[in-house]
Specification:
With 342 residues, the chain is of the alpha+beta class. It is 37% helix and 37% strand. It is built from six helices and twelve strands. A hairpin with a 3-residue loop joins β6 and β7. α3 runs antiparallel to α4.
């Protein structure tokens, strides 16, 4: 369905086609709730509000689901856009739940009335109005963030693709776009080792063990990207958005067996937040990992291949490329942007 929509319309996803219906339905239901309070004898207003409220709740659920699909299709975004997207997604979930609650409250009153537990009709009307008003207020906040994603960050706007490039200079950013390449392979010894990735230098790594190629700063929530050209190697590569030690790190990992996953390593073991499979082509490609407000994504060449949720990092750590492989790898560029500043 999504492929058909993109091929035959200007819409990037179903989300913009769906989202306006629950907004219009909820606002109309709220107006009818207000009429019900002012004119309690106008029975059709209450029943119409019940119907429109139920439709708004169903539409909000559909909008939330289509929004998740649209977020995964958005590709690589700036750290600021990832923060706005995470907040929008969280509020969208609350909006759907509150509109569902607003649709259920009148049903609860009706069940009570049929069981002979009828309360004050005026109080019921005020409660119905209040719950729906709160839901509409959260919906307005959600819609404002959705508008900011489009108009401020260019998410979903095809002509604004340049806004999705990672920041490589200024406060809260570090990295390199690869200038003078290192002509000699850097041997990576067996056992763990740390390498600082210097701006302007490509690294040709001969790896026989495990270790971290890191940017120099400490990070919390962040977006990190690395462009690689793997040679003949076997093992796992993880783009880590927080590394505090061999038993305390988290990031986006993939293997030469074609498995991609979002992982968190602790002293208790490896926790897999989400996983998928990917046909791995051994040629130049770009990995991207984002950790923003409990939303975690792993992308390959701007395609979201795995998406999961969990707790945000409790502490800062290094970001970089965690290797546990045997073979050769060329690290062309690596950039990172802090999401904590937005």
């Amino acid at each position: 369905m999504l492929e058909f929509l993109q091929a035959n319309s200007s819409l990037p996803s179903l989300h913009p086609a769906i989202i306006h219906f629950p907004i219009a339905l909820a606002l109309t239901a709220l107006l009818l709730r207000l009429v019900q309070v002012v004119k309690p004898k106008l029975g059709p207003a209450g029943w119409s509000a019940n119907l429109l409220g139920a439709l708004a709740a169903a539409g909000a659920g559909a909008a939330w689901l289509s929004g998740r699909q649209a977020a995964n299709a958005a590709g690589g975004l700036s750290a600021a856009a990832e923060v706005a997207l995470a907040r929008h997604a969280d509020l969208a979930g609350w909006t759907a739940m509150l509109l569902t609650l607003a649709a259920l409250v009148p049903v609860i009153w009706l069940v009570g009335r049929r069981q002979g537990q009828a309360g004050d009709p005026k109080l019921q009307s005020l409660v119905n109005l209040g719950v729906l008003a709160v839901a509409v207020g959260v919906m307005g906040w959600t819609a404002d963030l959705g508008g900011a994603l489009v108009y401020d960050h260019g998410v979903g706007v095809r002509t604004a693709a340049v806004q999705a490039q990672p920041t490589t200079s200024g406060a809260g950013a570090a990295g390199t776009e690869g200038a003078a390449a290192s002509t000699e392979a850097v041997p990576f010894p067996g056992g763990r080792a740390d390498w600082e990735f210097m701006p302007g230098v490509e690294l040709n790594l001969a790896v026989a063990g495990s270790g971290l190629v890191a940017l120099p700063d400490q990070w919390g929530d962040s977006v990190i990207e690395a462009t690689l050209e793997p040679g003949d190697f076997a093992g796992t590569i993880a783009l880590v958005h927080r590394y505090a030690g061999p038993d305390d790190w988290e990031g986006f990992e993939f293997t030469t067996d074609g498995e991609v996953r979002l992982v968190r390593q602790t002293a208790a073991g490896l926790e897999v937040r989400a996983k998928s499979s990917l046909l791995f082509a051994r040629e130049k490609f770009t990995m991207r990992s984002s950790a923003v407000s409990g939303h975690f994504k792993g992308l390959v060449d701007d395609d979201v291949v795995v998406h999961g949720h969990g707790e945000s990092p409790a502490a800062t750590g290094q970001v970089g490329l965690l290797l546990n492989v045997t073979g050769s790898i060329r690290l062309i560029s690596m950039t990172a942007s802090s999401a904590d500043e937005h």
